[in-house]
Amino acid sequence: YEPWRDAASDHGVTMGFALSPQHLSIDGYRQVAEREFDLVVAENAMKWDATEPSRGAFSWGQADQVAAFAESIDADLYGHTLVWHSQLPGWVESISDPVELRTVMHDHIDAVAGRYAGQVDAWDVVNELWEGDGSRRQSVFQRVLGDGYVAEALTRARQAAPDADLCLNDYSTDAINAKSTAMYELVADLIDDGVPIDCVGFQSHLIVGQVPSSFQQNLQRFADLGVDVRITELDIRMNVPASAADLQRQAADYRAVVEACLAVDRCTGVTVWGIDDGHSWVPDVFSGQGAALPWDAQYQPKPAYSAVAEALGAE
Ligand code: G3I
């Protein structure tokens, strides 16, 4: 097949992957990265613990490597993430004074979004803000600043990076359910209030055989609010070792996700959360599961790779 990125561009969408720059020294990893993708997001390198491990002391090494790699392959650069409860240093976690936390959040956004202003095309400004029942996750930002922290972060990010699209991103929001409906209502309110919001990301950490039937309809309802949508962290896990039948089911699932995006005008594309099964967060977190990505641990394309190529109409 022709590269995913070439086939995708005929549809006006981009194909992304989450990059861990230390893996670029592996030939197989780098070759797939260079050939297939036209959007790069840092798997970890732009998170708070990586960029501002102690207050006001920034470290840009890995984040700069991600930005440089994106530029070297003429890919979009996607920013992940400015405000998130996880991979958040303890010194932020322990702040209880709202004035102090607001200053710290603003300073972080100014520094990180500001550094990559003009390079990052879109930012996950706030990541994972909801509980499954549609209530707000009780992160330090929520507890100390209240509901308004989301609008504050978006507004600050607009000032720091005026040309970047500003997104909210979450998991288990792929179907129409309580959590995605909470996100939907928030986005509608933010738009009504004139808060800058351009896009919503759907992580799509899925389980084989469980692509939600309402996926496309869900993407469409957000698009109808006037924001872009994107599949931001796609992987589809299964029990390992995987059977040939599992890999075929996974291929059908990957195809269904890409088709859902292509069916929605404002879907900007699909990002996979890694490249190969040898470097995936899944086995570390879900014991006994894995094989979630389109390439195996030897960088050989799996049936999911071909299914995506075919969904994109690759020649
Ligand atoms: O860098 C250290 C290393 O020095 C240390 O020796 C090693 C031992 O545990 O840990 C390394 O850090 C790990 C880091 O990944 C880099 O590999 C952390 O422990 C580990 O927790 C971290 O996991 C990341 C996870 O986010 C953290 O929440 C995964 O790589 C990353 O794929 C995952 O990505 C998230 C998205 O950001 C948000 N959505 C869900 C998604 C999957 O959890």
From TrEMBL:
EC numbers for this chain: 3.2.1.8
Domain GH10: 1-311
GO molecular function annotations of the record: endo-1,4-beta-xylanase activity
Catalytic activity annotation: Endohydrolysis of (1->4)-beta-D-xylosidic linkages in xylans
Keywords: Carbohydrate metabolism, Cellulose degradation, Glycosidase, Hydrolase, Polysaccharide degradation, Signal, Xylan degradation
Origin: domain of life: Bacteria
Coiled-coil regions listed: none
Family per record: Belongs to the glycosyl hydrolase 10 (cellulase F) family.
Protein name (record): Beta-xylanase
Organism whose genome encodes this protein: Isoptericola halotolerans
Part of the whole protein covered: 45 to 359 of 483
